[in-house]
Amino acid sequence: MNQLLSPIFRTVVALVTLSAAALSANAQGIAGDVKAGETKAAMCIGCHGIVGYQNSFPEIHKVPKISGQSDKYIIAALTAYKKGDRRHPTMRGIAASLSEQDMADLAAYYASHADATLPETAQAGNAAVTALVEKGACLSCHGANFSKPLDPSYPKLAGQHADYLYVALKAYTVEGNQYVGRSNGVMGGIAKQFSHNEMRELAKYLSTLDSELKVVPQPRFR
Questions:
Q1: Cα(39)–Cα(45) distance, rounded to whole angstroms?
Q2: How far apart are CA 222 and CA 42, in angstroms?
Q3: What is the pTM assigned to this prediction?
Q4: SS3 assignment, position 138
Q5: Which of 26, 118, 113 is nearest to 72 (CA)?
C-alpha cells in the first residue's frame, strides 16, 4: 500500500470503530419494518423504481441502485442528506421529511432485496485499474468483492451505475457549494487524489462487478 495513504487508513479504522458503536446503539433503539418500508417507499419509486431513470442534477446520470444495499448504509446516507453533509437538493428535501423510524423502515425494505450469491473477491481489472484501487485503498473499506464493506454503514459499490459512481466521487471533492458536494473527511481525502479521468475508469470497473444491487421495477403509481 502506498505509504502516503497510511494516515488515511488509520483514520478510516478509527472512524469505523466509532461508527460501529453508534450504529449498534441505534440498532438497539429502532428496528426497521419491511412491510412498513414498502408502503413508505412510494416517495422513492418515482426515481429508484424505474430501470434506467436519470437525474439531471448536477449532471445527467442514472440514479443509484439502492435495492440490495445494507440497511445501515441507507440510514447513514439518509441521515447525511438530512444533516446537510450530502447536499443534493431533492434528496435533502426528502430526507428532511423522514423520522428515524421512517429511515429504518425504508432501509429494511430496500435491504431485503439483497439475494445474490457473490464471489469472495472481485474479478481483477486491468493494470491501470488495479493501481487506482490500490491508490485509493478501496478494498480496506469496501471489501475484497466491493460488496462486503468493513463497516455496514459504508456502501456496496459492486455493480453500481458507473455514471452515478463518477458523480459521487466528484461530489467528495466539492467545497463551498450549498447545492453540490458531500462532506466526508476520509472520502474527501481519497477522492482528491484522482483526476476526473481516473474517477471514470474506477467507476467503470466497479460497475462491471457481480453485485447484489439492483433496480426493482415498480410503476410510478400504485
A1: 11
A2: 8
A3: 0.86
A4: coil
A5: 26
pLDDT tens-digit readout, 72-131: 999 999 999 999 999 999 999 999 999 999 999 999 999 999 998 999 999 999 999 999
Q: Which one-letter amino acid corresponds to residue 72?
A: K
Asked whether the beta carbons of 137 and 7 are under 8 A apart, the reply is no
DSSP secondary structure letter of residue 57: S
Phi and psi torsions of 209, nearest 5°: -80, 150
Q: DSSP secondary structure string, 145-199? A: TSSS-SSTTSPP-TT--HHHHHHHHHHTT--S-SSS-B--HHHHHHHTTS-HHHH
| 8 A C-beta contact, residue 34 and residue 109 | yes
Cis upstream peptide for 58 (omega within 30°): yes
> Domains of the chain (ranges plus CATH)?
10-15+31-207 (1.10.760.10)
* Residue that is written with C-alpha cell 431513470 in the block: 53
Q: 129-167, pLDDT tens digit by residue? A: 999 999 999 999 999 999 999 999 999 999 999 999 999
CA pair distance 102, 174, nearest whole angstrom: 29
CA nearest to 155, candidates 111, 123, 115, 185: 111
User: At 61, which helix (H) or strand (E)?
Assistant: strand 61-62
- Cα(195)–Cα(173) distance, rounded to whole angstroms? 11
Helix (H, G, I), strand (E, B) or coil at 134: helix
pLDDT of 27 reads 46
